[in-house]
Design brief:
With about 625 residues, this protein is of the alpha+beta class. The strands form nine sheets. Strands 1, 3, 4, 6, 9 and 11 form a six-stranded antiparallel sheet that branches. Strands 13, 14, 15, 20, 21 and 22 form a six-stranded parallel sheet that branches. Strand 23 (about 420) and strand 24 (about 425-430) form a beta hairpin. Helix 5 packs across helix 6. It is globular. The two termini are about 55 Å apart. One of its GO terms (biological process) is carbohydrate metabolic process. This is NodB homology domain-containing protein.
Amino acid sequence: MKRIFSLFIALFILISPLPIVSQTASAAPSAPYVVNYSSSNNLSASNDSTVVPGSTGVASQRFVVSGSGWNGAFYTDWGTHDVSAYNTLDFWVKGGAGGEALSMNISDGTNSYTANIQTPSDASWKHVSIDFSAMTGVDFTKWKSITFTCNTSTVNTTFYMNNVQFSYLDPYTGPQITVVPWNGAQSAVSLTFDDGVDSQLDYAVPALNAKGMKATFFITETAITGSRKEDWKKLPLAGHEIGNHSKHHYEPSANPTQPYQRTYDDTLGYDETVAAQTEIAQAMGTPVVTYAYPYTNNDPYLVKYLKDTHLSARGGWGNGTYYMNPSDTPDWMNISSRFTWEEGSFNTDYKSWVDNAISQGAWTVITAHDVGGTATSLPLDQMNALINYLDTKRSSIWIAPYGTVSGYWRAQKTIENLTPNATLTGTSYNWNVPAYFPNNINLKVKLKNGDGYQVVQNGQVIQPDAGGNYTISFGAKSLELKRKPYAVNYSNSNNLTASTDATVVPGNTGVASQKFVYAGSGWNGAFYTNDWASHDVSAYNTLDFWVKAGAGGVTLSMYVSDGTNGYSVNIQTPSDASWKHVSIPLATMTGVNFTKWKTITVTSVTNPATFYMNNVQFSRT
């Protein structure tokens, strides 16, 4: 494609140039930089009165695939332009029928970035917004062209483009999360098996179990009513996925000529999708959330029922690529898959599929039917070669069932489209989880601009792993990036015998407490200050700590100071010598300048006395 694209660049002459933008990246332009349509190849192009609802009112560009071979719609004046003052490429797109697969290529003339785009299945407009940081490799000081091609290359396929432009969006600078693709691996591979045939139980399952690999088995009614039903029921218990492969394995056809073909209507569409899903789930005792089209035919009567009941559906060519990148916009009801076959070879075919997934940082799905022997779709020696090779590549590949990977990816897309909400304590995220999502989807995320913050979900602080990843539950529907407390350390004391004590606050951080014994006369004090210097703690709104006394009922006095002004308050420990949580709003400590806080001093009014302090900190509540 690059060679063809270069030829087109050489052939086209300059037309009505766009105004050249020459701004530095530090300047934030107020108006978008509009990119005009230039020309096309194998597409019939025309202006269309259809406009984006609520948008600028500019007529859209309508493209119809008019011939075979490579097609492209060029947005450019073929010159070099500095658009680095912007940070976002955005546009609107829709398909004539819905579900069209497009590919976008943005180029600086030397390097380029490609992304797959799926138009909405209901033929509505879709707003696509891509941050410059995601378009790695492109030099936006030398931008030249944007090209849209239609991977759904059937003649008369129609799609519309509107408001292609570079924009500047004020970046969110607060703490936020980013999802780590493919569960932290470089790539992902899913092995799937269709039809629920006995040879899969006899050969594929033992080979997979021996390597600790999990796969997806798309089964039909035959498997849940046959003699091997109990064997199929064991697969989910071993971590494999059971998927829906329809009730009767009919192929949708406008003009049926074979016994396995049927003309679909609403009744048959429902029976082969939702009814089959319910029957398989009940018979296997496991949730069934994914689908594989019989003969890879994603007929509209099937999609109609799948889109609201299944997480994703596996097809053949799918969205136009066998290697799906995290930045792609997939059609969840038509995910691509590579099919093994009798004459296929690990050395010439299957190995390259795995290697390409790794090199492209992508997910690829591999499908087999019968296995074992020489007259089947996947000979046993070729299956073992593939499984063994995947085993050697575990450090680079996330090997997981189809539903696990598609669920992770779909949840990732949901999180990436969220807008962080500022709260008094930090930042919150909230999202919806469709009913057909499995309840065990966990995502690995990283903190961006997160110094001084912690990830909290369901009231629990999540600790990062060695790689700095936080594992969050998608089913929890929310999380918070909460400002970490500012711990204040014990420094020294006067007329107090101080020691570290193993006693900790129940259910708290597990930090050992400080034990103080006052047995003398005169003024005593326990000083809490990190270095006796001034510190700005005004981002917090509360001073809190835990306290208890050895015998109970001890009166303490606390003094908070900025070095010039201070605030004092008396604290009574519980009479039963239990721990007490003290929380004091900074707003009540009048006179103290918390942009210059220096010390906290705790003295014992009761003499003699033993008391304990734990977790002295400033926090945001």
